[in-house]
């Protein structure tokens, strides 16, 4: 991953139009996008689905990063998942034989999903943050802020796993 002279996103100041309590969520998502974009610049498409150890592939992490943001932010809006979202969930971790996606396409998809999430954060009324939201088919109760914070921490957890996986995959490809 290439180093930049810019401080991490959270040290660059508040983001305009994002409620104060949601600033950490926005900062984490923007940091994740920057790290993923930098990490995977020039990553070979033929390594997307490689698993040198029993760990999730780079392709899985990229699909999951986009998908989990989409799903958790959908629940935060108090909406059920669409048929498309459910189909995408089933496809996570599997290359599409009919329409193989490139690393660049998967990174772009994640970047667009982060932008969509940021737009939702900007329109989230901070008075609704403690409102109950139901998650999944089991309708497990959470809150708007619980879903949004979990989306940020889950995203960063997978970015960390992605960094390690990229190192493993590229090292094994050079052996």
From TrEMBL:
SUPFAM superfamilies: DinB/YfiT-like putative metalloenzymes. Pfam families: DinB_2. Residues 29-162 form the DinB-like domain. It comes from the Bacteria. Gene3D superfamilies: dinb family like domain. This is Damage-inducible protein DinB. The lineage of its organism: Bacteria, Pseudomonadati, Bacteroidota, Cytophagia, Cytophagales.
